[in-house]
What we know:
By secondary structure, the protein is α/β, with parallel strands linked by helices. The chain has a single domain (27-201), classed as Rossmann fold (3-Layer(aba) Sandwich), CATH 3.40.50.360. Helices cover 38% and strands 20% of the residues. It has six helices and nine strands; from the N terminus they run E-E-E-H-E-H-E-E-H-E-H-E-E-H-H. Helix 1 crosses helix 6 (181-213).
Amino acid sequence: MFCAEGRGNREVLRLILPPAETDTSILSNVVTIVGNRQRVSYTAHAVQIVNSTLARAGVAVEVLHGADLNLAFPGDPVTSDAKRLEETVAEADAVILATPEYHGTYSAFLKLVIESLGYPSALQGKPVAMLGVAGGRLGATKSLEQLRNTCAHTGALVLPGAVSIAHAKDAFDTEGHCTDGAVHAALEGLAGSLLDFLHTFVQPRHVLENMIAAGIDVPWKPERS
Length: 225
């Protein structure tokens, strides 16, 4: 339903979702990109916690792992994986980018992923959450800062609260389980922040689009006083 709020001489239109329409199944397409070519890595371990948290909230997550993507450099023929990557990201409600830190920056492969998303980029207007994993005590702060700048340049909506993991080998055991409570909480928090953004800004749009597609009349129109 719609609700009008008077603020001075302005009218504010708000969309209030009925309880039956707050199901996260409306938000069924979050894509996680692991910017690492290694099948098993600390980055992949960290991503798994974020994905599991989203799954428990009822959100379906599609994982695109660097080990499974054959991407060409700009100027070379576009591969079928690149086409699939661009299409998948374009259809997503949100994207999670995960990167290891190499030599003070995010991975070259993740840069290749971004280069493969077309122009205008499939990230344009897309909510993007980020996490970085590093072996050193400073974490992946430099990588995330540079990744944020790159994503912002594409027109992505980069969410605050990126997670930087330091001393990665001490945060996970040999089986890939997180042994650091603070790291685990931070990764769950990243998923929670993304969910909050989706519920607040994306889900209402989907509900409104569904109403319009179904031919439901908008019951109220704002008028200025």
